[in-house]
Structures are given as structure tokens and as C-alpha cells.
Amino acid sequence: MLKINHFDGVTRFDMARDFAGRRRYWTAAYLVDGMMVDTGCAHSAPDLVNALSGETVVRIVNTHSHEDHIGANGHLQHQRDGLEILAHPLALPILADPRGKQSLQFYRRMFWGWPEPSLGQPVADQALIKTEHYCFRVVYTPGHSPDHLCLYESEQGCLFTGDLFVGGRDRATRADYDIWQIIASLKQIAMLPAVKLFPGSAQVRENPKRELDAKISYLEDLGEQVLEFHQQGWEAQEIVRTLCGGPMLVELFTLGHFSRRRLILSYLGKNDEN
Q1: Which of 9, 43, 95, 231 is positioned for an S-S bond with 17, CB 3.0–4.6 A?
Q2: What is the pLDDT of residue 57?
């Protein structure tokens, strides 16, 4: 399933797998001036390739290597000679060998699927990526993943944030997220004078400074409470019950891989895959 919307020179593709007529866990990719920012998931790759059949695409920039952002890389690269793919250096081994370098739990395979391999090139922090009409600055923003980056175009004030900022008040995270790095990365992009923010899912934001600051404040305040309770000797599950509300459906079908407990453990520096 694919939906297309246009925002002043930016085309947004929203993609999700269809389950008996229902779609869940959408992911977004963008086309701007011949450059794709992410390519969605493997299950929606044929739809995206078809939607781009009449478009000029000379480059892909991946915000990070999670399977719901690199899913059509290989399809597009095989179809278009010379198509350049840029990503954080840490992402390149995963792009080249998704099955071998990134294990996917069952829920991830079900919702997004295994990407096809693709050949990427490294892009440095603060590097400039020039398209025909624009110039995008790369900003390394680890936390959601070690290889996460954002793109900022200063003349238009456009900010592409991948999964660093998608809005809302987080009550849960996935195993291996680093919440303190996420906060630091959010502070970094909050300093940019962005007019429009294009996230990896959820709605496009205009003048996003207030929302970015609110998210930072929320995460910092929550972290202070977590650390205070931890210093008082509370166990992680006690903190979860006090600060994170009731059980969430996502915890059930991810078998705890994405959970309230993972959020608390991230604040405590214990949120690895184990």
C-alpha cells in the first residue's frame, strides 16, 4: 500500500503492508530534486519502484540502516544504472548484506521484510550533498541507531529527520536504542532554523522548534525521574509501572523487544539486545 503527497517540491511516499485490508506501522520516504531520502520497506518496494517509474532519481540517502528505510534500495539500484546510495559509514555493511549483518525479529520480518542488498558509499558528518537546485547538510544524529543521520537544507529550511523525531511522547522503545544519545541528537537539530520537518513516519511539521523542544523536555524530565527512583533502589519494573502507564499491545506482539521496560533500561544504560 502506498500513498503519495506533495509539499512544495518534496514528494512524500507513505508505505505499509496490507493485512486483510488494514495497514499498520507506516514508513515514509521522500523524493526531492532527484534525491530519495530513504526507500521504505521490502514489502512495499515494488509499489515504490512503480511510483518512481516516470521520475528522475539519481541518488538515495539513507537516514539509517533499519529495514523499513532501505527496503527498495536494491530494487532501484538494479533498475537504474549509476544510482548512488549514500549513508553513514556504519550502515554500509548492513546495506550490502542485510540478512547477514542485521537480525530481524519475527514482527520486523512480518511488517517490513528483508531488504535486497545494495552498494552504498559513506557520507561524512557535516558533508554537503548537492542536487540540481539545493544543498543538503548531513548531520550525524545517533541514538535511534548508531548510524542515524539527518539532512538539512538551509535555503528552504527543510529538515529530514528519519526516525530521530516522529513526534509524540514515547512510552516505549526498542532494544538497542540509546535514549541519552537521542536527546543529544534532538538538541542538535533543534538548533537548526527549520521551517518544515519531514519525519520517517507521522505528519510533516511546519516550524517544528516548539515540538522539538517539548520532546527534549519530556525525555529529560522522564530521565530525571528514572534516575531518581533507581538511586532509591527501585527495580526497573517498579519504575515502569510508576512512570510508563499500563501495558501496550506492541509489547505483546514484539515479545518485549519494543517495550516500556526497554525505555527505562535505556535511561539506565542497560538496553542492549539481551
Answers
A1: 43
A2: 97
